[in-house]
Amino acid sequence: NNITHRLALDCEMVGSGKDGSDNQLARVSIVNVYGDTVYDKIVLPREHVTDYRSLITGLNRQIISAKGVPFKLVQAEVAEIVKDKVVIGHDIKHDFTVLEFSHPKPMIRDTAKYKPFKALSKGNTPSLKKLCSEILKISVQEGAHDSIEDARSALQLYRMHRTSWERSIKKYKKKVQKNDSADDSEKKEGSDDALDD
Question: Which of 111, 158, 161, 190 sees the fewest Cβ atoms within 10 Å?
Answer without folding.
Answer: 190
